[in-house]
Amino acid sequence: EFEEGKVASSTAEEMEHAKAAIAEERQKLTEIGKEKYSKFKDRFENMDSTLEENLEEKMKRLEKDLISVGKDTLASAKE
């Protein structure tokens, strides 16, 4: 006949330890996920201003390049 009882306590302890390890790993992954999400969210929400800043920087750089190209052209034309 089958007799009811508890399984050896070492198995129960191992299960609890495994559950705790899994919970700890999940917590770490959740924290990493939250950090990445918040960075992405900030970048996405501020995309318009970021694009405007990048565009302004590119325009200024192109303007400087064109001015220097114009000066070089004038200098070579004088020679």
Automatic annotation (TrEMBL):
Region (Disordered): 1-20
Protein name: Uncharacterized protein
